């Protein structure tokens, strides 16, 4: 008994060995079995757009919908050679027979008329297909009509049917059409790209109509008729099975190719690539990610055709590894992100020591217990101090802070003389932040009032801009439910970040300050000069006696909040725009792995939110957008005036005498706002935001583009009339 068991084990061992030596050959269908959204009965894609794209891929060349595909042209050529030869031969034979007196008048005329009509119909279809894309896409249906006509002719003009109809004997002079029917059905199969559904319909129609006609009319024995058609039936049955397999495989291949393209370019799959009116500007990181995607795709394609199991396994592992490399790149090659968790040499105390002294890290929520999220917080309707202004509309206007995309901060400013103070106080009351963080009421008042006072009365970079940016960010967060994943610390920090993000702005750009060797540029070593100054100023205001709203925060919350505020404000530096956009796109689109539960990701998302809110006026209703635009332009022009005064080169779009505002705005929206908003809105994935925000952005772009056009055509007319006048004078 023992012996046999041992022998058994040895057998298993040998068979395992031989398997690995011989290599098991995998069947394609088994290893690539994918679920495709196909209706198996009629072999069509369930999604009509996909179905349309499939037809397009068969009929047209890839990437060029105007040119017919090579395969389609070849199929057409074969079909028309066959059709023309058959008709020409039949007509010639009939004429020869007629000349010899073997063909009856009525038969010759019937044949000539029907074949003439079919030939005309066939060539009309070819003409229409080549003339218009609309008919090209309907080519299957057109060929069905043609086939219907030809099949009817072949069935009715079969010698046996004609003999029965005219009670005459045509047997000596005309053809039995069984063979030609089989050939013709095969040709039809080719020209409709093995469409299983059409082939089944045409085959069934042909067989039933001809058998029924013959059985009903012919005097031949039913057995003779059926045995004749039995061969045709078996041939067509085999053709039908083959047709199903070919079409299924073609659709499966098409689906796989679509999936691969989608994986390589997720934006294109949303149909967004084609109508983009701006150049995509990518960072090095994004290009590396795209290269990784291409490598992964190539490996995947190679794996699909490799038949050796162990090579296939290695290629699959390579795909996983590439995915890891991608993550590493997208997370910033994380040189500083030292992994302590998997290190068995370190005990918990060592880890805390290293993270506190050697790493830019603060302890996580998990370590200190979970904070409340804003989803748990009950909103209340604030009453003070807004009722003191005696303006009934103010309440409802403030109610729309963060709720109505087109909230008008200027109204609040006009009736109260304040912006930051009113909006900040309103939100603190709404979310009971003073109670949550034990902040005395007068500290809150003093902080917001001092912050507001520290904004200069600039055309654009003033306290109203800061309050408006806060409203815009809150709209994004609360409309998309992101707010439900934020805790009160995040909320109070983002309020401070938004309201302080431009404090003390001198109405001059970073470039101006750096080029003019300004004291501020020296202080911050030319690096995000203004943004560093805004952060420092916000904190120094908070440090003033009676202004410290963060006084009662514990050390962990304070550091967390500070990290968030610093990064949010630093990322409003437009000089780093493409770097920041590229990093966010890499995470939100290429990897799609952003998680609000992760503190670093949360900072990334909120910073991007503030960055978008900062230029939010570009997607507000035209009335607001135009107002903010004229203010920002006025501020640019004042800098230009200063540059002229100092005899310096005037910065782009800062010369009030030469700047074409519509052109500058069209460029700003097209190249800066649109790519940013598309990525941000696709991350938020909310219909309302897409509607109010993206659509308005496009409307505003058309508004400026229209102005550019009008201006150009007016300039052209003026030029023409000047040159015409010149010619007249000559
Ligand atoms: P911030 O200075 O933080 O408000 O950053 C936003 C920047 O976007 C501004 O400094 C401007 O340079 C720029 N910006 C905003 N609106 C416009 C506009 N309509 N045209 C051109 N640049 C704009
Ligand atoms: Zn700003």
Fold and architecture overview:
By secondary structure, the chain is mostly helical. It folds into 3 domains: 24-253, no CATH class; 268-331, no CATH class; 368-713, Orthogonal Bundle (Catalytic domain of cyclic nucleotide phosphodiesterase 4b2b). It is 69% helix and 2% strand. It has helices spanning 2-22, 28-31, 48-59, 70-99, 105-131, 133-137, 139-156, 159-166, 178-191, 196-217, 222-264, 266-269, 284-305, 309-330, 348-357, 365-368, 392-399, 409-416, 420-430, 433-436, 441-453, 463-479, 488-500, 510-515, 519-523, 529-542, 555-570, 577-591, 599-614, 622-645, 661-684, 687-729; strands at 38-39, 44-45, 60-61, 64-68. The chain has a two-stranded antiparallel sheet. It has a two-stranded antiparallel sheet with strand order 3-4. A hairpin with a 4-residue loop joins strand 1 and strand 2. It is elongated. Mean pLDDT is 83; it is low at 1-33, 267-274 and 362-370. Bound molecules: adenosine monophosphate and zinc ion.
Mean pLDDT: 83
Q: What is the CATH C-level name of the largest domain?
A: Mainly Alpha
User: Major sheet, described briefly?
Assistant: 2 strands, antiparallel
CATH topology of the largest domain: Catalytic domain of cyclic nucleotide phosphodiesterase 4b2b
Give the uncertain stretches in residue-range form.
1-33, 267-274, 362-370
As a percent range, the share of helical residues equals 55-70%
Compounds present? Answer: adenosine monophosphate, zinc ion
Q: Into which percentage range does the β-strand content fall? A: under 5%
Radius of gyration: 38 Å
Terminus-to-terminus distance: 122 Å
Tell me the CATH architecture of the largest domain: Orthogonal Bundle
Give the total of domains. Answer: 3
SS elements, strand count: 4
Q: Which structural class do you get from the secondary structure elements?
A: mainly alpha
Question: How large is the count of helical segments?
Answer: 32
Quaternary state of this entry equals single chain
CATH fourth-tier homologous superfamily of the largest domain:
3'5'-cyclic nucleotide phosphodiesterase, catalytic domain
> Tell me, what's the shape?
elongated
Protein name: Phosphodiesterase
Coiled coil: 278-328
Enzyme class: hydrolase
Binding site for AMP: 461-465, 502, 614, 665
């Amino acid at each position: 008994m023992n012996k046999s068991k041992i022998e058994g084990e040895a057998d298993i061992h040998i068979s395992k060995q031989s398997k690995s030596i011989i290599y098991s050959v995998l069947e394609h269908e088994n290893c690539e079995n994918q679920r495709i959204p196909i209706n198996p009965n009629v072999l069509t894609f369930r999604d009509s757009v996909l179905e349309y794209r499939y037809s397009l891929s068969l009929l047209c060349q890839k990437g060029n919908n105007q040119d017919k595909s090579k395969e389609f042209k070849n199929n057409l050529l074969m079909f028309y050679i066959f059709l023309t030869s058959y008709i020409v031969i039949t007509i010639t034979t009939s004429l020869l027979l007629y000349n010899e007196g073997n063909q009856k008048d009525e038969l010759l005329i019937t044949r000539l008329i029907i074949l003439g009509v079919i030939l005309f119909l066939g060539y009309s279809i070819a003409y229409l297909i080549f003339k218009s894309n609309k008919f090209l896409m309907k080519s299957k249906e057109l060929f069905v009509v043609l086939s219907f006509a030809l099949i009817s002719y072949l069935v009715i003009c079969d010698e046996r049917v004609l003999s029965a109809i005219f009670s005459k004997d045509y047997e000596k002079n005309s053809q039995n059409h069984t063979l030609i029917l089989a050939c013709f059905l095969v040709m039809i199969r080719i020209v409709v790209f093995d469409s299983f559904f059409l082939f089944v319909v045409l085959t069934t129609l042909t067989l039933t109509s001809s058998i029924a006609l013959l059985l009903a009319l012919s005097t031949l024995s039913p057995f003779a008729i059926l045995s004749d058609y039995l061969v045709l039936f078996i041939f067509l049955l085999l053709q039908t099975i083959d047709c199903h397999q070919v079409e299924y495989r073609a659709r499966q291949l098409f689906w796989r190719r679509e999936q691969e393209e989608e994986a390589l370019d997720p934006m294109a799959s949303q149909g967004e690539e084609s109508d983009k009116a701006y150049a995509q500007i990518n960072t090095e990181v994004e290009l590396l990610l795209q290269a990784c995607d291409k490598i992964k795709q190539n490996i995947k394609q190679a794996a699909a055709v490799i038949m050796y199991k162990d090579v296939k396994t290695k290629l699959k592992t390579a795909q996983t590894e590439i995915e890891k490399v991608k993550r590493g790149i997208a997370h910033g090659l994380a040189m500083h992100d030292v992994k302590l968790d998997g290190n068995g040499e370190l005990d918990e105390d060592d880890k805390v020591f290293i993270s506190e002294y050697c790493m830019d890290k603060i302890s996580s929520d998990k370590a200190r217990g979970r904070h409340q999220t804003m989803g748990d917080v009950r909103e209340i309707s604030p009453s003070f101090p807004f009722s003191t202004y005696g303006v009934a509309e103010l309440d409802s206007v403030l109610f729309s802070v963060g709720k109505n995309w087109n909230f008008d901060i200027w109204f609040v400013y006009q009736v109260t003389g304040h912006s930051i103070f009113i909006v900040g106080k309103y939100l603190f009351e709404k979310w009971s932040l003073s109670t949550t963080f034990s902040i005395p009421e007068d500290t809150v008042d003093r902080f917001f009032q001092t912050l507001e006072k520290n904004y200069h009365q600039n055309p654009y970079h003033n306290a109203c801009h800061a309050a408006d940016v806060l409203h815009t960010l809150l709209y994004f967060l609360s409309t998309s439910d992101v707010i439900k994943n934020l805790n009160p610390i995040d909320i109070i920090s983002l309020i401070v970040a938004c309201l302080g993000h431009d404090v003390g702005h001198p109405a001059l750009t970073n470039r101006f300050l750096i080029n003019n060797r300004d004291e501020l540029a020296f202080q911050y070593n030319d690096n995000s000069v203004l943004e560093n100054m805004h952060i420092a100023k916000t904190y120094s205001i908070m440090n003033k006696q009676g202004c410290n709203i963060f006084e009662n925060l514990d050390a962990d919350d304070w550091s967390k909040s500070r990290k968030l505020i610093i990064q949010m404000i630093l990322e409003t530096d437009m000089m780093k725009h493409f770097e920041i956009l590229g990093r966010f796109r890499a995470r939100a689109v290429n990897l799609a792995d952003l998680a609000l539960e992760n503190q670093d990701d949360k900072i990334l998302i909120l910073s991007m939110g503030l960055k978008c809110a900062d230029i939010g006026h570009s997607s507000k209703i035209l009335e607001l957008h135009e107002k903010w635009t004229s203010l920002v332009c006025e501020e640019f022009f004042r800098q230009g005036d200063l540059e002229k005064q100092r005899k310096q080169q005037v910065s782009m779009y800062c010369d009030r005498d030469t700047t074409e505002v519509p052109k500058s705005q069209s460029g700003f929206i097209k190249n800066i706002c649109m790519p940013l908003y598309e990525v941000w809105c696709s991350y938020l994935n909310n219909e309302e935001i897409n509607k109010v925000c993206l659509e308005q952005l496009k409307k505003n772009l058309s508004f400026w583009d229209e102005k550019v056009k009008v201006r150009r055509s007016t300039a052209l007319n003026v030029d023409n009339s000047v040159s015409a006048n010149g010619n007249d004078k000559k």
